[in-house]
Amino acid sequence: MAASIVKRVSRVKKLNISHISARYKLLTGFRHFSTSKQWNKALVLGVYENESTDSIDFTGTARKFDEKADGKISQLLLTVKKPLKCGKTRTLHAVDPEFSSVLVTCIGKRGEGYDELETVDKGRESIRAAVAKAVLQLRELGENEIEVDSCGDTEASAEGCHLALFSYDDLKAEKSRKPTVRISCATRYSQDKNSMEKEWRKGAILAEGQNLSRRLMEMPANLLTPTKFAEIIKEQLADKCEVLVRDKDWAESMKMGSFLSVARGSVEPPVFLEIEYKGRQSDSPLALVGKGVTFDTGGISIKPSQGMDAMRGDMGGAACVAGSLLSVSKLQLPVHVKAFIPLCENMPSGSATKPGDVVTAMNGKTIQVDNTDAEGRLILADALCYSEQFNPSLILDMATLTGAIDVALGAGAAGVFTNSDDMWNKLQKASVRSGDRVWRMPLFNHYTKKITECQLADLNNIGGSRSGGACTAAAFLKEFVNNKNWLHLDIAGVMTNSGDVAYLGKGMSGRPTRTVIEFINLMSKETKN
Ligand code: BES
Ligand code: ZN
Ligand code: ZN
What we know:
Bound molecules: ligand BES, zinc ion
Shape: elongated
EC number: 3.4.11.1, 3.4.11.5, 3.4.13.23
Distance between the termini: 46 Å
GO biological process, one term: proteolysis
Organism: Magallana gigas (Pacific oyster)
Number of helices: 18
Oligomer: single chain
Protein name: Cytosol aminopeptidase
Strand content: 15-25%
């Protein structure tokens, strides 16, 4: 590899006739290379934002590449007087015998890190976005092998590439091309080859988990029924985890009256998934719980038809649990995790639950179902109760629970309700690394009062008014949890991406899978899990 670069450099040197300009010398070089070979391999190089018009601030890898190329990359970049700004790219062709395109992408200012107001690591986030843009542009050019600069953070670079190249086109005749992406130059220019490749793999696995979540969320509900969800999870996880698929009879035997009251309107049978990953011996696992409503029509309290198709993603919590487990098990994290996923459809029918019906949850609490569209909390109530039986060191649930969290936070962050400052600090730390943010919300008694004021039962499944809807939903869930380390993530606002996250295409986002994986990674470093 190095030999071929040196050979090219000496060829360029032979063209070094003093009366022609440096630029012309380079152009003659181009012509020579472009006719000699058909390439389909490209290289992504990073540069930092730099005001100077006569120097380029390359990343370590890019600088070494430029040196090997006898300064050709910097010369070409400097032919244009406008310095590259963060997120902008320049594509150079035939500057190297190995690569048909060398795409230079600007990764923002050197040394950028934690931004307190944004609660995110800006450096890592800029890398993800910059390499994502680069690989998509190179795919447009028909490149099918792409080597990517680590940009000083190999993991973030791998995440950006693999997240950007995701598409759900299983049901289309025309599939989008998937160029192969790998860490660039690590083998050639870095002494630290093994650790870089390990980090690249970690980033790729983090993205793979999120991409599984996205795929499951995107799948249409006629294809992804509760039964099919369970089948896919078995396929994806069975070699690394124990997967138990419980049926309706089992749920009845567990007295999960709240969960079953949602499922009863549909012809699709409900499923309760129980998954265990045992990366270490322990009798206090981390418990993950995910809302798995494979389609939410609202039931008898039916939703308006506009935009209802998005409710195929109402199993986003379940999908993020599955995606997290995929990555945790592939990374072989030394941690014990148990996951609980209630799966059903929320449909209106002759057998559906009606507003005003009263149902009994597993812990014996009675619930007046005044709105059948507030079904997520009903299925989670039983799943949370059940998870408590396994002596978990913490319980983290994820659910596309309320439209109200979208009103409050939009796609800026997932809303987090927790009874533990320590858990909150750890989750937030994880989200700073992942770039997939969280924001803390209140669990005040104020909201509990709204759902305990109930005419017929112990609890009402709605808070009476629309005010603080995400908080009353969380207060409802709190009635089914005793654990001192409980986190509830309302992910309805981050369910889809409509362009806010630069490295995720439009559609179901799979957020906040990577935050949860990072969080589990942090927890795995604590001995008791
Ligand atoms: N699945 C919805 C919440 C949702 C809304 C998810 C938008 C994703 C995007 C949930 O089951 C629901 O319908 N909640 C109701 C609760 C209300 C009836 C108290 C809501 O938010 O309107
Ligand atoms: Zn609903
Ligand atoms: Zn729902």
